[in-house]
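User: Hi! I'm working on a homework problem where we have to compare a predicted structure to a textbook description. Could you give me the structure for the chain below?
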Amino acid sequence: MNYGHALRFGLHLPSDADCGPGRLVEVAGLAEQWGMDLLVVPAGTAGDDLEPSTVAAWIAAATVSLGLVLEARPETLHPAMLARAVAGLDRLTEGRVELALRAGPSAAASGTADSVAALGEAIAVVRELWNVLDRGLGRFTGRFHRLAGAEKAAPAHDVPITVHGQDQDLFRLVGLRADEWSTGCDAATLTQGNRAVDEAARGAGRDPREIRRRVTIRGGFGRRTGRFTGTAADWVNDLLPLVVEHGVGTIVLDTEERDVAAGFASEVAPALRAAVDAVLPRGW
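Assistant: Happy to help. Predicted structure tokens:
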């Protein structure tokens, strides 16, 4: 199974408390220098003290072409504020920003289904405020979120929205409203999730190929002890089925080790692109 997306590679910004301002810029600069497509800025960067949009703004000023993915939990920042922050940063970076959302419990949403429903409403609020073609103030009335009339804010481009998680309700939400589904690298979860996402997309009149699939991996080089260990060739053998059989289009490495990140960028990424091109039909 393949959804026809060109491969993208990214790094996950370290989220430990010792990741200070200088290190944030250093990691971003290296990711750009190594030719990475994107850098994921997680909620909780620098020990939970900084909002992802603030961190991304700091990094954006020190980079030129690197894509920036803001991870957020709508229960920690009102989606209207999040929409305006993302739109402003996207305009300042001339279209380098993406938004990734995670469902989570909140005071209003105590169960899994409620949590996903609240996330769906958050996406609706964000898109309402980005829709400046529909003139007037942004308005939305839902169970968890309401807008009585808010100023809209246009991003520089159609900002993709990624939804992360592994749950049947969440799969349906991805099929209905998201541009990308983010998960781990478990083959069974990818199989189940792809099936559910595709079914929901078709039911909503969408082509499943509109939705990217992203995985986040961890690993190391040296002795072969399991998946994503050993040589670059071993990594390629581990990753190739995820792309060819499960339609993965975005691969993000989560590591604190510079040598691992450098090897992923300089050896694994180009070798995997070549391996995929050799296996899939011409023009995939």
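For your comparison, note the following. The two ends are 11 Å apart (CA to CA). The first strand starts at residue 8 and ends at 12. Good luck with the assignment!
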